[in-house]
Amino acid sequence: MKTTQTIAIIGASGSMGAAISKSLAKGNYRLLLCANDRSKVEAVAGDIKSSLPAAAVEVVDCSKEASWEADIIVVAVPFAAEQEVAAKIKEVANQKIVISIANPLNDTYDGLVTAPDTSAAEELQKLLPNAKVVKAFNTTFAADFATTVIDGKQADAFIAGNDEEALQTVSELVSTAGFNPIVAGNLAVSGTLERMQLLLIQLNGKYNYNWLAGWKILHN
Fold it and tell me: What is the mean pLDDT of the chain?
């Protein structure tokens, strides 16, 4: 029998962190939610419990404490906060899957703050050299988690990483959240995925998608 995996979601009070938490609560996972504002995290946990009474959800004060218990760590914080989070969890993230969802956008949403030859995920991997960093959930808007089928089609969600087993595990998480997982390649592909979401954000502003839009690969 497969053991229940424990997932720490750091930044669970934010729009993306809350959306990921609520989606993964539908699966056979134990969730440890944490963020700087405990009251906001407790509100997210309360929402989950009201709709899924059997969900295994706990609110934890400290990102390090949550990560110590976790098999998988979701870093659901803006790119600017990744370095601070990495410093807190570094010693407890060894050999664990760490999911980078960040898109390193500049303040005007017309470019990225990372150098052309790197990405938020690759920078996080440098900060956590002994963790298995996987890029995921960055090509989806928070609103998509409640509506993963858009215009009759299930939105794709792209994943990148260097560890095959970690990619398989994260693919299962993406499926639980309701998206169609597509492994795009190794961690170096993260820069492309982050630029894809920059484009989608720009298109959202131009065409008023109301933050409900996603990517779909059409193929035969």
Answer: 97
Residue 182 contacts by C-beta under 8 Å, 6 or more apart in sequence? 156, 157, 158, 159, 217
Ordered by start, the domain boundaries in the chain are: 5-207
CB 83 within 8 A of CB 89: no
Amino acid at 127: L
Q: Are 76 and 10 in contact (CB under 8 A)?
A: yes
Predicted confidence (pLDDT) per residue in 130-183, tens digit: 999 999 999 999 999 999 999 999 999 999 999 999 999 999 999 999 999 999
* Domain 5-207 sits in CATH 3.40.50.1400: no
What 3-state DSSP class applies to 59? strand
Strand, coil or helix: what is 149?
A: strand
Helix, strand, or coil here: 122?
helix
Phi, psi of 150 (to 5 degrees): -120, 125
pLDDT of 3: 79
- Which ranges constitute the DSSP H helices of the chain? 15-24, 38-51, 63-69, 79-89, 120-127, 164-176, 190-207
Residue 154: its H or E element: strand 153-154
Amino acid at 192: T
3-state secondary structure of 57: strand
Residue 111 corresponds to which tokens in the numbers above? 């470019």
Q: Do residues 10 and 66 make contact, with C-beta atoms less than 8 angstroms apart?
A: yes
User: Which residue stretches of 28-139 are H helix?
Assistant: 38-51, 63-69, 79-89, 120-127
